[in-house]
Design goal:
Keywords: Kinase, Membrane, Transferase, Transmembrane, Transmembrane helix. This is Histidine kinase. This protein has 347 residues and is an alpha+beta fold. It is 64% helix and 14% strand. It folds into two domains: 140 residues, no CATH class; 160 residues, Histidine kinase-like ATPase, C-terminal domain (Heat Shock Protein 90). Helix 1 runs antiparallel to helix 2 and helix 2 runs parallel beside helix 4.
Length: 347
């Protein structure tokens, strides 16, 4: 979107335009008078006075219509105003000319007044039209900017709301696990409390940010996994696979945690054996691809109820951030559920 012109730049353009009109009007008027065999000194006086008058009128038009935007029924007022300004310019020009030129040399003046009126009317109408279209463009740009800012505020609020919706689910599960551990394993309950505190502190620090590096996101995800490993013990194992070059990639804040939480829910719930959740990250052609896979029991009743917690919220976040609906895909390969997340890497 084009940047709006500042007030200082606008004034400079107005000054420049007015003096361009002055120079062109002076040259054209002098040429017409010279072509009509008017005396040179009279032509110079006449052309100079006429040019300065139309320049002054141009300034007056710019000042009068600086913020004016007519509605569809008021455009006739512009032509009426142009006629009034043209009449004023002709009157001022004639008054000043008679002060410097003798009556014997003014025979041509009254004869030329209708032609001067038409020329001045056309020039003033053009100036008014340019001024009005300029105001309409500035108003349109201002409205567009305000609309974009409003949409951004709504989008940011929705993104914040989506992120906040994901936290209570995890928080309640963690608190329930802490309560369960207090009696039988107080030290593990104490450690889990500290880990939960660190995780929530890190989450609060990220509230104002939309993006972070992959390295920071993995570090934050590790805090979450430490808590979950206290809940599930030896049954939960995680494997990370990535090259060093992916660590500086950009990724939406807390986008991995709900995906991993979904994998844990559908991989470990109602399962007593050890479960390995694999997380691989690759970067190619400015696209960061994250693949999360977990085993699941195909005959579990819960599996038939949907694709998992948080996936629809992640889809919505990705759409709000990137305007695309194809960045998150899920599929099943045998007894393995796979989530594939693609994050564009812009310069």
């Amino acid at each position: 979107m084009a940047k709006p012109i500042s007030e200082q730049s606008k004034r400079s353009i107005i000054h420049g335009t007015s003096w361009i009109i002055c120079g062109l009007y002076l040259a054209i008027m002098y040429g017409l008078l010279w072509w009509s065999k008017i005396a040179r000194d009279v032509a110079i006086y006449d052309a100079g006075i006429s040019a300065l008058t139309i320049t002054g009128i141009s300034y007056l038009v710019f000042s009068s219509l600086q913020y004016y935007i007519p509605n569809n029924r008021n455009y006739w007022k512009l032509f009426a105003l142009a006629a009034i300004f043209s009449l004023i310019s002709i009157t001022i020009t004639r008054f000043l000319i008679v002060q410097f030129i003798s009556d014997e040399e003014l025979i041509y003046l009254n004869f030329s007044l209708p032609f001067r009126f038409v020329i001045n009317f056309l020039i003033i109408t053009c100036v008014m039209t340019i001024n009005v279209f300029w105001n309409i463009q500035e108003e349109s740009m201002g409205n567009k900017k305000r609309k974009e800012e409003s949409e951004k505020m709504v989008r940011d609020a929705e993104l914040y709301n989506l992120r906040q919706q994901l936290q209570p689910h995890f928080l309640f599960n963690s608190l329930n696990s802490i309560i369960a551990l207090i009696g039988s394993k107080p030290m593990e309950a104490r450690n889990m409390t500290f880990q939960l505190s660190d995780f929530l502190r890190g989450t609060m620090r990220k509230d104002d940010a939309q993006f972070t590096t992959v390295e920071e996101e993995i570090s934050h995800l590790s805090l979450y996994l430490d808590i979950e490993k206290v809940r599930f013990g030896h049954r939960l194992e995680t494997e990370f696979h990535y090259e060093e070059d992916v660590l500086q990639g950009r990724i939406p804040v807390m986008i991995l945690q709900p995906l991993v939480e979904n994998a844990i829910k559908f991989g470990l719930y109602n399962v007593t054996t050890e479960v390995v959740i694999k997380i691989s990250l690759t970067l190619a052609e400015k696209m960061l691809t994250i693949k999360i896979s977990n085993p699941f029991e195909a005959d579990q009743h819960e599996q038939k109820k949907g694709t998992g917690f948080g996936l629809s919220s992640i889809q919505r976040r990705l759409y709000l951030l990137y305007g695309r609906t194809d960045l998150l895909q899920t599929k099943k390969e045998g007894n393995t559920f796979i989530s594939i997340l693609r994050i564009p890497q812009y310069d």
